[in-house]
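Regression check, adenosine-5'-diphosphate case 307:
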Amino acid sequence: MDTYMSVVCYGKDSEAAAEAAIEEIERIDALLSIESESGSVRRVNDTGSAAIDRETELIVEQALAFHSSTGGAFDITVLPLMELWGFTSGNFRVPESGEIDAALDRVGSGKLSLTNGVLSLGGAAGIDLGGIAKGYTSDRLMELLRSRGIESACVSLGGNVQCLGSKSNGSAWRCGIVHPFKKDSGEYLGIIAVKDKAVITSGAYERNFTDKASGKLYHHIIDPKSGYPAESDLSSVTIVSQSGILADALSTACYIMGLEGAIEYWRSGAQSFEMILMSSDGSKVYVTPALADAFSTDCMLEIISQG
Ligand code: ADP
Ligand code: MG
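Current build output:
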């Protein structure tokens, strides 16, 4: 998954459980990565239509549900755009608008059809599960560790955290959320105390490049409507949920929706989740009421009203 990971667990045979967790991370990475020769995703992208394994099928089904629930903000068919901007190869560049239009013609979850375990990509589409894979993985790790009798664990997949139970002393896990403008000094935007939750963050600071000509920063969260990196009035979106896959999909989607859109979406009750948002200039942090007591920050804080 191209990032640092850590697995901490307590209990009987915890070391063997942690080893099994690492194997599970590698298995899922091989299944879902766009590069992996052995996985279904690569096969579908290469051939345009292929039988996919049941596990990938279930993930794609959930991705499609998040696509419709978020009004299209979450869209696994952004692959042609990820390629065009160089995020898949590392050869970053700012495309011409004609190239964006051509890539956009190949984007849209409506181009996917899934029948009897066969995934077909219409219109030269391609899929990238990068917006959901880490959350899915941490969900699986919780199940695996629980089934091995572990009652206390915390995994971090590139800063996306999911905790099982509480700390070994019974107190809540304390997850620090990276401050988008102070990450080099290791400062946090805030700390959230949780038990049995995923705490997953999206922000423009994670993978990006600066265009030499304009000095403008381009990042890897793509607005599927414009074809450009999302011009968000948020710098960081953290979703807190029992479900890792939901938290991962919605952190990406709410970043694209922006402050008002994310709040409206939360209020709509379309999905049940809690969130912590930071404004694009870093001046203000917003938190949903249910998290307020468990969240501490030195930033100016506003509790989002139920509306
Ligand atoms: P990270 O993986 O760095 O924590 P995200 O969860 O926000 O960050 O996922 C960003 C990744 O999701 C991108 O690298 C890309 O693979 C994919 N992606 C980008 N834009 C979208 C989008 N609009 N919908 C779904 N996936 C996306
Ligand atoms: Mg995500």
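Comparison notes: Helices lie at 14-32, 40-47, 54-69, 79-84, 97-104, 133-147, 244-268. Residues 244-268 form the longest helix (25 residues). No diff flagged against the previous build.
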